[in-house]
UniProtKB/TrEMBL annotation:
Its cofactor is Ca(2+). It holds the Pfam family Pectate_lyase_4. This is Pectate lyase. Belongs to the polysaccharide lyase 1 family.
Amino acid sequence: MGPNAKVIPLGQMDGDAIRLVTARKVWIDHNTLYECQDGLLDVTRGSTNVTVSNNWFRNQDKVMLLGHDDGHLRDRNMMVTVIFNHFGPNCNQRMPRVRHGYAHVANNFYQGWEQYAIGGSMSPSIKSEANYFVAPNDVGNKEVTWRKGEKGLWKFYSVGDVLKNGASFNKQTGVGGAKPNYSQEQNFKVVNAMFVKELTSESGVLQCSRSLIC
């Protein structure tokens, strides 16, 4: 998907389920995505104002990439909200992985991971808020985050997250924080993390029919 929400040909694809390129004001909601050749969702090349909500991501190595590559500086203006999603089972990494921009990751249910859940490079700002993290049983993979680059440039913040089964979040310390630059119309209330499993219980494709209202 490209500018003005138009579907554009991109030539040979790399196996992503959903890929946004230079797109703005996109809502990705109530999908069930799994077992794709590359990733399940890419938001790249200057895309911004994207909301990813109520999706079920499972059975995948690379789940969600926000930011094209280390050299694509347009992604510094990227702003993505990831909310009310269910990650797992059998997800390895990138839930999401962020380059350059800003991601507000809130009220998601993480049903384990293999390498990490939330990661980033090129000095992104990531606010993890009121998520429910259940670490895998493997004692070597309890850490939620993965970071690449100088420690002083990390901007990873955890606010009100629930960490279960030994999960840990190597969060930022010091003054300030990753603050969403939402407009008044974009503001939303984040729910206490203890309700996340219930909130995400119907993530994925809606089970609707003529006789069954969604």
